[in-house]
Amino acid sequence: MDDHMTWKDLDVIVIGAGFSGILAVYNPFPFYQFYEAELHRDWRELFPTRLEMLRYFEHVDNHWGISASFEFGASVAGAGYSEASQRWTVSLEDGRRADARWLVPAVGSSSVINMPRIPGVNRFRGPIYHTAKWPLNAMDMRGKKVAVIGTGPSGVQVIQYVGKVAEAMTIYQRTPCLTLRKYSSPDRTAETLGMGPDDHREALQLSLQSSNGFNYALRDQDTLAVSAQERNLYYKKRYLEGDWAFWMGGFRDLYQDLEASRDAYAFWAEQTRARIRGAAKRELLVPEIAALPFGVERPCLEEDLYEVMDQPHVEIVDTSEEPIETITETGICAHGQMIDFDAIILATGFGDEASGLKSLNIRGRNAVALEDAWSEGVQSHLGISVNQFPNMFFLYGPQCPTLLVNSPAVITVQVEWLCRIISNCQQAGISQLEAIGESHQVWQQKMEELWVKSLYHKFPRKNKKGSKMSKKERTWIGGLLLYREELESCLANGLEGFQVCHASETALL
Length: 509
Prior knowledge:
single chain; alpha/beta; five-stranded mixed β-sheet; five-stranded parallel β-sheet
């Protein structure tokens, strides 16, 4: 079997080539930040398109030279841990294998496509596109009859484009999307794009010192402690700033107090409803009572979403109570009404935060599968390590700050910490590092203490199937600074929560 091994005696194997994978691969010791000002010197768009992002990653590669460390187009068949060698072996679907001391799955929280289970989905004779797997040769939607299923972030983007060129567009909506205006003033956009390296360096470092990974701070007052007049002035100021200022820069009790949440939603709804002329659509898109408290789900950013959906050739079908019945050879049937389409777009996003890790067929100590270990819910230490899976650290996955924090900021903090962990282990002759079982309960309790004080406790998130998630399914909502403190505490207290095995001890076994 060793004849098929392509890479032997590696230090670290990283699975994934997104932000976390790139940063993990680039980090030799000492660590280096993705938040480097030089990498941001030539942005042309405040909200980059696909082409702009490709150009950016080419720039990153030219600057960091990371391509040589990647094996692109490789599909992982599985990963297994050997207790005898205290090393991981990753198998690829083409038969090649790689061996390393440390395994870093960097597949993120959004890597497995969520395909809706709609009867007849394979019967449709026209093209069906999922927004997460959009082909370069997709049908031109001009003059076509198009269905869009889903109104999350990708749905918002697709609707704004397709709705302007299609002959007819029907949107199947389960939950009204909560949005904020993408663009602020032209002057602010020009100022941001014109920032120099020193300006970027300062802004990025400030964001790493914030709770949300952006340059936003919650106002240090409770909502209802401020007069209605002052609240409205403050809401308007934040709302007109654009982006996530209204969400991340609101009053401090927005995520804890239901009345505070309702007050913020009432202001947002008033501004948004004024943009929709049709009364029926207005009620579907911006109901008087929010489906969820304002801000517990990350708002989507939009430019002219409601103006597009308000057009007469755009229809909204509410599937919150009655889901789509079936997809036929020519179209979709819902509420007993059949509508024919030229194309169907699935804007249904990704699986849950653990789906990417579960899909890798990872087996730890005693060949236990990660999918089995998490069969009754995710368990972890610090949202980065798992008992029975020694020397494995996953990045930007379940139980870390994925809800209320800018993802590159979380990744930067995690990778910095991980590099120090591995470096310390190498220097101390530690060959195996494993989260102890009790650390799962400790982390669960810390998450629970934050959770019960928030609106997430009263209004549980829904999974991709539309049902409420188990009460056990928690994630870290304490923000970036508190999370970083937890990571630092682990290091300062002698790798607290981990069991250590030195190479010298292994030699005696």
